[in-house]
Design a protein that fits this description.
Elements (H helix, E strand, L loop, with lengths): L7 H13 L14 E5 L2 E4 L4 E4 L14 H11 L10 H13 L5 E5 L2 H16 L3 E5 L40 E4 L4 H10 L4 E6 L12 H11 L3 E6 L10 H5 L6 E4 L10 E5 L1 H4 L4 H4 L15 H15 L3 H23 L4 E5 L2 E5 L15 H13 L2 E2 L5 E2 L6 H23 L1
Parallel strand pairs: 3-13, 5-6, 5-7, 7-8, 8-9
Antiparallel strand pairs: 1-2, 2-3, 4-10, 9-10, 11-12, 12-14
Helix pairs in contact: 2-10, 3-10, 5-6, 11-13, 12-13
The structure holds pyridoxal-5'-phosphate.
Length: 431
Amino acid sequence: MPNRKSSDAERGLVETARRVLPGGGFGNVPHEIVIAGGRGGRVWDVSGNEYVDYLLGSGPMLIGHAHPEVVAAVEEQLAKGTTFFANNEHGIRLAAEIVDAVPCAEKVRFVSSGSEADLYAMRAARAYMKRDKILKFEGGYHGMSDYGLMSLAPRQSTNFPRPIPDSAGIPRSIRDEVLVAPFNDLETVASLVREHRQELAAIIVEPMQRLIPPKPGFLEGLRKLTADNGMLLIFDEVVTGFRLAYGGAQEYYGVVPDICTLGKTIGGGFPLAAIAGRADVMAHFDKGAVGEDAFMMQVGTLSGNPIAAVAGLKTLEILKRAESYDRIFANGRALIDGYERILQDAGVKARVVGEPALFDIVFTDRDVIDYRSAMGDQDAMKRCNGLLREGGILKGESKYYVSLAHTDEDIRFTLDAFASAIAEIARMRAA
Ligand SMILES: Cc1ncc(COP(=O)(O)O)c(C=O)c1O
């Protein structure tokens, strides 16, 4: 990283991390940067390098870091106590806000992470349907549970619907409980649903899978297939919830599932996630409603935590204001248009994939419609991300999260950095 300063303090922390953390990190992103703070659409590291931030904490900081109104609301609650286990006003208000906003949400159960939300959503579907199998899509991210880690990022291709576990330590038997289909391929899903209709409890899908928008009719087709064949449709809206629209992907694409999962944005930067859905399915969290045998045990020490709920409520209040989504989408469109122009001018074959609120480029000249077509040239991708980091842009491996807090200056700076990175990649390819 020739442009990046590296201080003794940061090098010391990286060394300590290598000593005490497996792989030298928290398991999320490359470890050579230690973040010291963030404000608005920027973060800075311990060595004093500043970045325009498209990592956004992997999505939660949609309105920007340390938003003064969120900070004030959290500070007020901090002095009143930080967790109670029992019901609290802010958690109840947040649940009511979710019910008002999200089309499928009649009842809400809070947990602390998206992984947990997905685990319980699938379990609720199995409890409701009294069947064990779940259909998911290759490349679909539904957290770290045994079911979720089937064919999330398979390194080799197998025939559908056979799942490939992405992790050691998953019982072999789970492979028999998960069917995998290609995203955006309704025909394959329809034939699997017909073949396994007596065993399938649900289809779980990211309505926009990672970066890949659904083809017209795909989500509508899933809705009809699941309803016609008597199984549930789960939307994993951990990323898309309150991001693509206030009502999430189900509002944005106009298809309402039976259950959804939410996370990231609704916790305002604190650990909070939720399962939300039809009252008769959510009734399985209530022993009084469904009885001992159909009851789903679910308890969490920090569920509905008041600090997270206050931060989430304030974040949603800010998102609900006139023009918040217009601004997020205008930022995203300016980046996407600029990126397409830069790639075309440089003659580099890559596609910009996604929606304005989150997108990335894929180094390919094919249409990107599913996991396999989204792979592209991974080396070029890594090189591009590294060059961007040197140029002061922080992002995840394969996603730009766009923020309400990104300024016109941030966008201009990003486009300049991207133009330099792409020029370098074009030079390397020509050499
Ligand atoms: C679509 C989706 N579902 C679930 C999760 C898991 O959420 P968490 O990291 O809060 O466990 C993620 C995390 O990025 C996600 O992108």
